[in-house]
Prior knowledge:
Elements: H1 2-23, E1 25-34, E2 37-47, E3 52-56, H2 63-70, E4 78-83, E5 86-88, H3 93-98, E6 101-104, H4 116-121, H5 131-144, H6 160-173, E7 178-182, H7 190-205, E8 210-215, H8 218-224, E9 227-232, E10 235-241, H9 246-253, E11 271-281, E12 286-295, E13 299-303, H10 310-317, E14 325-330, E15 333-334, H11 340-345, E16 348-351, H12 355-359, H13 366-373, H14 383-396, H15 412-421, E17 429-433, H16 441-456, E18 460-464, H17 468-474, E19 477-482, E20 485-491, H18 497-504
Parallel strand pairs: 3-8, 3-9, 6-7, 7-8, 13-18, 13-19, 16-17, 17-18
Antiparallel strand pairs: 1-2, 1-4, 4-5, 9-10, 11-12, 11-14, 14-15, 19-20
Helix pairs in contact: 13-14, 15-16
Amino acid sequence: xxxxxxxxxxxxxxxxxxANIIMQVQLNTIHKQFGSLVANDEISVLFEPGRIYGLxxxxxxxxxxxxKILSGYQRPDRGEILLGGAPQHFxxxxxxxxxxxxxxxxxxxxxxxxxxLENYLLGRAAGGESPRQAAxxxxxxxxxxxxxxxxxxxxxxxxxxxxxxxxxLRLLAGGAQVLILDEPTTGxxxxxxxxxxxxxxxxxxxxxxxxxxxxxxxxxxQELCDYAFVLRKGRLVGGLPLPCPNQQLVSxxxxxxxxxxxxxxxxxxxxxxxxxxxxxxxxxxxxEPVSLQLQAGQVLGLAGxxxxxxxxxxxxxxxxxxxxxxxxLLGGESQPDWNYPLARQHGVAYLAAGRLEEGLxxxxxxxxxxxxxxxxxxxxxxxPQNRKLAEQHxxxxxxxxxxxxxxxxxxxxxxxxxxxAMLPQNLKLILMEHPTRGLDIRSTDWIWEQLDQRRAQxxxxxxxxxxxxxxxxxxxxxxxxxxxxxxxxxPAAETSADELGHLIGGAL
Length: 508
Ligand SMILES: Nc1ncnc2c1ncn2[C@@H]1O[C@H](COP(=O)(O)OP(=O)(O)O)[C@@H](O)[C@H]1O
Ligand SMILES: [Mg+2]
């Protein structure tokens, strides 16, 4: 009897041991380029069963690309994927799932016109199950992970969090042993996040599955994961057991700061923007009262991990989000009903991070963009005049393109140049989100030269950037945000890279 129990136990142990070996995930020198951009640079990494990994890195670091390769959604240029030591060549996500790898994508892939049950059954071989049996199986599975799922609801009526839960269940029912979740907490409630994290713990601790959380948010990786791999600009730059001091992760996520060239001080001691206990609320984040001053000709850089509140403040200054408290003064004058059209009238320009989403209009030529911003009197657009203007901007701002070029066919650097060309002269304030993200050094320098000329005319600049080097090198003053709070405002010239890194990690 005892011997039988012992044999059973050791069989169990053997099976678990076997399963672990089988599902060990190994990526060897994975390389992926999009044109000349290296999204994954010879990345080698090992994931063990029963553990929760964080794949951490700033936006654009290459996280999604690496995970899309592991889940069969994209093919690597070279490198290999091994599951339990056996090489895999996934031609599709379906093949990867059949081998045990499932991924919850950043953008949901479900079909909204289907019911929950239909989505759940999507892509599965029709077993002998009746719809009723399948619905019951789905409910039982949902219950196990604390998900609240009604099989007969239409997917279009589900919240983002519920759609995620459904997709996770579909992957689990499809046999996923390795589960990848790409930025799953974007767009879901705090309560849904807690349920999701609890289910991930159950899956790893009780079922021995391998969990990979892809995120650019330090806090959530620290909260959930056993181990973090950090990507920076397409490279794997390190791995650390968690929890660890935030500072260690921050220094891996961001480049070392380069020595800073001396920069001209152009502050003119005339108030440009003054924020007094400004508060901003959105559904997801609350910005605690912020007070900041900006003089004409000055540059204020807002630093912090993405989602720390700095973007909210910038958008509130542009009149795109209402203030929920405090006051905003422009040129010393209080603006109680601040909004975007008013901001434009007062000489405030806002440049969004997504050039083609908010600043420029895909499908329009450069000439048509000129017509959009020019003040036409009457109904007729003066096309020859707008074409001439487009030509002038192309030559003054050295844009590689023609008046007839569609804006989306220009490179990122040239789009940004053209966006600058369209900015009116004599602005009081320019607000920018990641002004040089994805641009090469030449375009970056060019943009800051243009901004310097505007500073000399008294334009103040407020910008958000994830690039600490840019913040340190281009600002007069730096305001550091963490967790919806302004932690500190300091003069850029006296701030060391270390100090900045510490603050960004949330240390006081
Ligand atoms: N399909 C694609 N075509 C061209 N460039 C891409 C494509 N997918 C990703 N990239 C680029 O590859 C880099 C890495 O992107 P991604 O893996 O999505 O980063 P992350 O998930 O870390 O934010 C970025 O510069 C991105 O613009
Ligand atoms: Mg991504």
